[in-house]
Amino acid sequence: MSRTRVHNFAISLDGFGSGEPQSLEAPFGHAGQRLHEWMFATRFWGPDGATGVDDAFAQQHGAGFGAEIMGAHKFGPPGWQDDPAWRGWWGEDPPFHTPTFVLTHRPHEPLEMEGGTTFHFLDASPAEALEVAREAAGGLDVRIGGGATVVRDFLAAGLVDHAHLVVVPVVLGRGSRVWDGLEALEDTYAVESVASPSGVTHLTLTRRS
Ligand SMILES: NC(=O)c1ccc[n+]([C@@H]2O[C@H](COP(=O)([O-])OP(=O)(O)OC[C@H]3O[C@@H](n4cnc5c(N)ncnc54)[C@H](OP(=O)(O)O)[C@@H]3O)[C@@H](O)[C@H]2O)c1
User: Fold this and answer.
1) pLDDT tens digit sequence for 111-131
2) I need a surface site. Which of 18, 38, 48, 199 has the fewest CB within 10 A?
3) CA distance 76 to 129
């Protein structure tokens, strides 16, 4: 059975998945790279990186996925819809290697990239988008790739089977926050945590059946 999963989604202690304002120069706003330094230090990120707890979690990001769904603000800086040359942050061979569905209120024609990634642009509810992505995933799992708005919306709609979030010991104070409106999420998800020597805490949320 195809599952819907979130992996390596980094948040601050106060629950923000990015800072503000987002721009071409600062994709994570005032958060800079602070939410992802734990990941840059892993073997998952590069051959010189460390193995260990952070790497063991990070490696799950690539395993068993046939499609990704992401939000418009992960795909590009504000206004990318007005730039016909914008093809995402990741160059001609993005790291998804599957059909990738970008939720946006201003969809356009798909972009076929190298390495198996095709960006499709969808104006659809989370449930509708998941149906389309599942079909494209050919029986494999669907990753909800972020940002916080999209992760929150899919959690709120009860569409996520398993989520891995990484709590980074910084306080951002502002930005895009994942937990808002998700009161009593622990009633529907079993929440476990693992503290890493790096200082981050890995949270897993597994939907109770
Ligand atoms: N912390 C992490 O691990 C992590 C991971 C991934 C990304 N990020 C960062 O998170 C930030 C983006 O997060 P975010 O919360 O601002 O935005 P987001 O979740 O990427 O995108 C939200 C936007 O997507 C569009 N959208 C969402 N649902 C839709 C629907 N059902 N139908 C149509 N359009 C829909 C809307 O944009 P429009 O109305 O403009 O079309 C909405 O404003 C970026 O800075 C990114 O780099 C962080």
Assistant:
1) 999 999 999 999 999 999 999
2) 48
3) 19
Query: Which DSSP letter does residue 76 get?
Result: S
Residue 202 pairs in a beta bridge with: 166, 194
Which residues contact residue 125 at a Cβ distance below 8 angstroms, ignoring those fewer than 6 apart? 157
Q: Is 150 in the pocket of ligand 1 (CB under 6 A)?
A: yes
Angle between helices 148-156 and 126-137 (to 10 degrees): 100
**Number of residues that make up the chain:** 209
CA distance 164 to 201: 10
Q: What is the mean pLDDT of residues 57-78?
A: 96
**How far, in Å, CA of 193 to CA of 203, rounded?**
4
Looking at the CA of residue 22, tell me the nearest atom of ligand 1: 45
Q: 23: Cβ below 6 Å to ligand 1?
A: no
pLDDT in tens, 85-104: 999 999 999 999 999 999 99
Q: Which two tokens stand for residue 187?
A: 């009633």
In the prediction, which pLDDT does 115 show?
Answer: 97
What do you get for the CA distance between the two ends of the chain, in Å?
14
For atom 21 of ligand 1, the residue with the nearest CA is 71
Handedness of CA 195, 200, 206, 208 (dihedral sign): positive
